[in-house]
What we know:
Largest interface: A-C, 67 and 47 residues
Shape of chain B: globular
CATH class of the largest domain in chain C: Alpha Beta
Strand content of chain C: 25-35%
Largest sheet of chain C: 7 strands, mixed
Distance between the termini of chain B: 60 Å
CATH topology of chain B: Jelly Rolls
CATH class of chain B: Mainly Beta
Oligomer: heterotrimer
Mean pLDDT of chain B: 92
Largest sheet of chain B: 4 strands, antiparallel
Helix content of chain B: 25-40%
Radius of gyration of chain C: 18 Å
Strand content of chain B: 25-35%
Helix content of chain C: 10-25%
Low-confidence stretches of chain B: none
Shape of chain C: globular
Amino acid sequence: MDMVQSDERSILTRAGLDALIGTLAARGYRVVGPKLRDQAIIYDDIAGVGDLPAGWTDEQDGGHYRLEQRDDNALFGYAVGPHSWKKYLHPPRLQLWSAKREETGFSISHEPETIPPFAFIGVRACEIQAIAIQDRVFLEGPHVDPHYQVRRAGAFIVAVNCGKAGGTCFCVSMGTGPCAKSGFDIALTELLPGTSEPIYVAEAGSEKGAEILSSLPGRAAQPAEIEAAEAVVTHTAAAMGRSLETAGIRDLLMSNLNHPRWDDVAERCLACANCTMVCPTCFCTSVEDASDLSGEEASRSRRWDSCFTMDFSFIHGGSVRASTKSRYRQWMTHKLATWIDQFDTSGCVGCGRCITWCPVGIDLTEEARAIRDAPAQEAKP
Amino acid sequence: MMEGMEAIVREHRFFADLDDDFVKLIAGCARNVRFNAGDYLFRAGEPANEFYLLRHGRVALDIAVPGRGMITIETVSAGEIVGVSWLLPPYRWDHDTRAVELVRAIGMDAKCLRQKCDADHDVGYEMMLRFVPILVDRLRALRLQLLDVYGTHG
Amino acid sequence: MALAADPMAPIAARVARVRRELKDVWTIDIEVGSGGFPFAPGQFNMLYSFGVGEAAISISGDPARPNTLVHTVRAVGKVSGALTRLKPGEFVGLRGPFGAGWPIDVAVGSDVVLVAGGLGLAPLRPALYRLLATRENYGRIVLLCGARSPRDILFRIELERWRRRLDIDIEVTVDHAAPDWRGNVGVVTTLIGRAAFDRHHTVAMVCGPEIMMRFAASELVNAGVSDEAIYLSMERNMKCAIGHCGHCQFGGDFICKDGPVLTYRHLRDRLARSEI
């Protein structure tokens, strides 16, 4: 068997992919990837190709997610599920430090952060953009979050170009997919040649990726295979379940803060916060301090929080955003408009999770369209 | 004496840039008044025959609140006007006005001024343009006062 | 890979003095040692009561005395209550200073009007110390203070002392008073029209409840001050103070790092809308 050359596309078989997972694990990575659990495809630790959801796909729509059997053995034949990689890079609950009372005050200690580097298998193009967006929040502002930094710095990213557009996907509108252009170590495109086993066109995106790829059993890709891989993403791009017109969206939303549509969506929204939990870019957290009964030891942790909770905007006297309407408006205008002011990028990557996992199927592409179709003429803050 | 009154009227901020003819007309309704600290300019329930353009000092507007005694709801300072009840029937004061310190003011005969406004609507309009902003400012201030913004709520 | 310095980890500092200012307001002096703790007027710190929690508290002391950090706290919640119950010699956790402060340098060459409502005088006091320390750089300095009642006037003794100076105009007003009060009665905005300053060359710094700041800013505009020259200190829920937790957002601004002090020009349209 030939060894793969670094600067060209190569072909991995299922066995080659298994070798990739094995190699990463052997090098000390904690390998995580898609897995079937609780009737959904989620992200969890994986030991090999056998853990991947072979032959499964998903049907997604507003407020709707259902797994279905495929008629092939595709390992990546589905769109994104309820999890995103942020649960590893920006954990849902994290103890920041613990402290002990002392003579001269108190001493702070951080948990020994013996975090093995992550290897993420099956990262979609929209998710790579989501990670890049969280990089801006946690690494590129005036203050760096060391917990995110330590997890992010070592992460090895194996991207998968999407072979199937989900029913709620709109990455094409957001310019984030379905093909990963950068931000990965290795990118794979799954080819499903008829009745035979799938094969993977692999491309290195970093030196580390190239080095690992070259150590795997594989062969150079044929021109026809490279063309087939390109056809896969072209086909996916043409099959997006949703679209969102982004031209001038910042000004559109910010000049429609009193639009009647916000009242309309508030009638439907349960303020359950699902959309913020499944969103791969939502970064808000709450900080919680605690102490033991003796008051000698204390700790601080943070957990994901949501702008949909009443407490989120509490200042003495009450919540700034007491109505569901104002909270939905905050979430959507932040995601699609003020995020651009803050981080020079949209906060939305078009993954569609907020649509799929909304219990009442609220669709932000539809909400944005309703405002665009009948804009009010307000002064623009 | 009359010319002296005209000069005093002209100096007051309320009459700034008023036409000479109007000043002359209005000065005919004006007199110089003085109150010592603690004196009342007028009391609630009395007929509103005269209002005051303060030239010096400060007055307090007091209202009796059963169970809480007298409450000062507002103070008015030099350059400002005290009393609006003379504008509309029944021309009766609804609060006390008390000099907090030595007060010098122009006392304006309300009936005299009302008659002049009735007789010459240009004078009336000019007075309205000067009174309405004061009323609007007071209304705005009262709204903020009503909100009781300091301290904690709920 | 090792964890870098954690901006969420407080340092321990000794409480030197706690004094009661008003019924529910205390001022806490914190010793920060010879290294000092330089800050800009208008900035805030996160104060941590061991095991209880953390609150954003603006610095109310003199920036020329960086070895003693002064905070004025109203006991309204669990954390602020615990902070006000600290005793001298006990320790408090400290992170900061955070945020953008008052436009002390922008104001050079102008008249300066400070409008304080209630506890809003606390974050303005460092600005006043700084202005008075370099008094020759400014035109008129006017301090207009509003409080709910005579017994709610913050820093009353210091106000009396400043009032004796000839180079600063101070007016105090209360919303409600009994007739034995010889000062002004009326909301703080009523003082703006009475104050003497050059409207073309004035920088205004306003701090107090948001609704009071809105009324004050609009009154300053009525008085001829440009909305770019009016600065407000905003308050929002803060958990991290470093722009990561998302709680303090006001439109596109993170009040913790883009504010708390922002111009009225910048804030105007959002302030008028509810629940932003």
